[in-house]
């Protein structure tokens, strides 16, 4: 069973719809027992970093998530803000992240360029694959995905960078560490390539 | 590279989809579930669905219909029409909708935009403004589906609403709606110069080249109705959407 962890923010309905289309039942939950029995976890999220972390603290599921992900190595996919939560901290707030991947979440900073890059980075953009992984089976450079975000993660080690994307600068648009995968883009809203990525995650 | 979003804008009236001209004369297009399914198969960038009667007829939001429509939409969907409270907005997002579109209630109470953005995040809040040129040639914002004139001019209101936390602005020309005579580029430029958030140009698209013009005028995304639902001189209903290659060409050429 697939558990979509409800951090109180986000478009869980969209993810459940896409999983149904793939033919997989999922449950949107904050229940510790359900999370403990899940074969795979998805942590979605849209909104503010601190609010999401505060919600996870308040619900009291962080110890359970740590146990499942770090000790039992249950596969987890973080989407957008969900992926940001995997990092140590965010410029968006003061609350510490889950710290599963040595990375920080930072605001887009284009330095001094003449072009205007509006924030949020919103729309369809392509990825450059940085390392082979079964999660990217049949997904290639130039596959297009839907993005909407003002912050992005910056991994300390290139070993964790799965894909990069260009928007005024190159940023880490997908990250990986063992059983932990994160995407800045929204596979649940990215037509066939998104569906493929989610299937790959479910089949991994 | 980030591509320019090309967005079919669909108008819900009762339980069917319609297309208007200058916000009037609605023509029935078909069942929204079927139409959205076709757009999904064509892999459109995004969809905007607006219930054009919800506010003027003061009827409740059709949550069940929205749920059915988006269950087969694997692209971002924005819904607008009759959203009066943060709770309405939250409920719609939970159905699997990415963005909510505020219009009349954002103009009547700009703080409402902040309230919604605080809960859902800025990126989920689109403010749509309907603009008409007055007899004096000045742009004014209208609400209630183009029926009610307000005191606001588009640039000032765009600034205000961006400060209130709107993540995106849709700028719709009532004069061009359904005419397929091209976007009001002056209006697009006026608004895109006023704010730093993405702006969706809307109203008047009649051919793919119009998209490039809107982009040149500063739009981050372009929306169209008639162009994607009608075919030929007699406006026969036929759902279409340009393929990605021709869109790429259109935007790169400009």
Fold and architecture overview:
The complex is a heterodimer of chains A (204) and B (254). Chain A is of the alpha/beta class. Chain A has a single domain, classed as Class I glutamine amidotransferase (GATase) domain (Rossmann fold). Chain A is 27% helix and 29% strand. Chain A is built from six helices and 13 strands. In chain A, the strands form three sheets. Chain A has an eight-stranded mixed sheet with strand order 2-1-3-4-13-12-11-8. A three-stranded mixed sheet of chain A has the order 5-6-10, with no helix packed on it. In chain A, strands 7-9 form a two-stranded antiparallel sheet. The longest helix of chain A is centred in the C-terminal third of the chain and has 13 residues, at 191-203. Chain A is globular. Chain B has 254 residues and is an alpha/beta fold. Chain B has one domain (5-253): Alpha-Beta Barrel (TIM Barrel). Chain B has helices at residues 32-41, 63-70, 86-94, 104-108, 111-120, 154-163, 185-194, 208-216, 226-229, 244-253; strands at 5-13, 16-21, 24-30, 47-51, 77-80, 99-102, 125-133, 139-143, 148-149, 168-173, 199-202, 221-224, 230-231, 236-237. In chain B, the strands form two sheets. An eight-stranded parallel barrel of chain B has the order 1-4-5-6-7-10-11-12, surrounded by six helices. Chain B has a two-stranded antiparallel ribbon with strand order 13-14. Classes of the chains: A alpha/beta (204), B alpha/beta (254). The A-B interface holds A 9, 11-14, 16-18, 20-21, 46-48, 116, 118-126, 144, 146-150, 166-167, 186, 188-192, 194-195 and B 1-5, 40, 43, 45-46, 67, 70-76, 93-98, 120-124, 167-168, 196-198, 220-221, 244.
């Amino acid at each position: 069973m697939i558990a979509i962890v409800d951090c109180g923010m986000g478009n869980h309905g969209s993810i459940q719809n896409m999983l149904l289309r793939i033919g997989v039942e999922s449950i949107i939950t904050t229940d510790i027992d359900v999370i403990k029995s899940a074969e795979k976890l998805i942590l979605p999220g849209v909104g503010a970093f601190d609010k999401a972390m505060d919600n996870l603290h308040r619900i009291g599921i962080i110890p359970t998530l740590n146990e499942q992900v770090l000790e039992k190595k249950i596969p987890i996919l973080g989407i957008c803000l969900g992926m940001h939560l995997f990092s140590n901290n965010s410029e968006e707030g003061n609350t510490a992240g889950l710290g599963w991947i040595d990375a920080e979440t930072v605001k887009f900073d284009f330095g001094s360029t003449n072009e205007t890059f509006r924030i949020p980075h919103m729309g369809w953009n392509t990825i450059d694959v940085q390392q082979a992984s079964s999660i990217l089976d049949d997904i290639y450079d130039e596959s297009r995905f839907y993005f909407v975000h003002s912050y992005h993660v910056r991994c300390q080690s290139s070993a964790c960078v799965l894909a990069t994307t260009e928007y005024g600068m190159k940023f880490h648009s997908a990250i990986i560490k063992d059983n932990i995968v994160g995407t800045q883009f929204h596979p649940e809203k990215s037509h066939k390539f998104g569906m493929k990525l989610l299937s790959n995650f479910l089949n991994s | 590279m980030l591509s320019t979003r090309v967005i079919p804008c669909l108008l819900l009236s009762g339980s069917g989809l319609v297309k208007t001209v200058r916000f009037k004369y609605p023509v029935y297009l078909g069942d929204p579930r079927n139409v959205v399914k076709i757009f999904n198969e064509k892999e459109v960038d995004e969809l905007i669905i607006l219930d054009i009667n919800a506010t003027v007829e003061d009827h409740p939001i059709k949550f069940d219909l929205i749920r059915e429509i988006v269950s087969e939409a694997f692209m971002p969907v924005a819904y607008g029409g009759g959203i009066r409270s943060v709770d309405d907005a939250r409920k719609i997002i939970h159905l699997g909708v990415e963005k909510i579109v505020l219009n009349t209630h954002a103009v009547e109470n700009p703080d409402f935009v902040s309230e919604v953005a605080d809960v859902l995040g800025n990126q989920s809040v689109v403010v749509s403004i309907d603009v008409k040129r007055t007899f004096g040639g000045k742009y004014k914002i209208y609400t209630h589906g183009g029926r009610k004139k307000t005191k606001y001019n588009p640039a000032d209101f765009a600034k205000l609403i961006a400060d209130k936390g709107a993540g995106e602005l849709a700028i719709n020309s009532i004069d061009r709606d359904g005419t397929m005579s091209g976007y009001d580029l002056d209006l697009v430029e006026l608004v895109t110069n006023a704010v730093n958030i993405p702006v969706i140009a809307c109203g008047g698209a009649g051919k793919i080249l119009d998209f490039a013009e809107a982009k040149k005028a500063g739009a981050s995304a372009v929306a169209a109705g008639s162009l994607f639902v009608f075919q030929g001189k007699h406006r026969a209903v036929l759902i279409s959407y340009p393929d990605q290659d021709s869109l790429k060409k259109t935007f790169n050429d400009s």
